[in-house]
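Researcher: For the annotation table, I need structure tokens for VOC family protein. Please keep the output clean. Sequence:
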Amino acid sequence: MIDHLGLNVADYPRAKAFYTAVLATLGHGPVMEVTKEQSGGYEGCGFGPPQQPKFWIGTGAARTGGAHVCFTATSRAQVDAFHAAALANGARDNGAPGLRPHYHPNYYGAFAYDLDGHNIEAVCHLPQG
């Protein structure tokens, strides 16, 4: 249903470095950048699989907190690595990796607040194995 989404950030270079490190744990990296010259003022970076920027961060009226973004992980180990990388790169913990059976029996997720206070999550829906 959703093609892509974006968040405005207070410090674009810092946020780009943060998301580059954190999303690498899920096998994603920067795939497209838009410069101020190209857009008439906006500067941003899209992350995702090659040629498919699905998650964007960029300049604009920064909003602190309020947004929740969940990224798909293909294993529980990726969820663990995502959470560790987020905390190592300046995020605040909002829920250690673990099962959340109130969602469903195999919901394994981890939560952190990014540099702008947005609640980011990684989740694996697969059973342990």
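Researcher: And a one-line annotation?
Model: The helical segments are 12-24, 36-39, 76-88.
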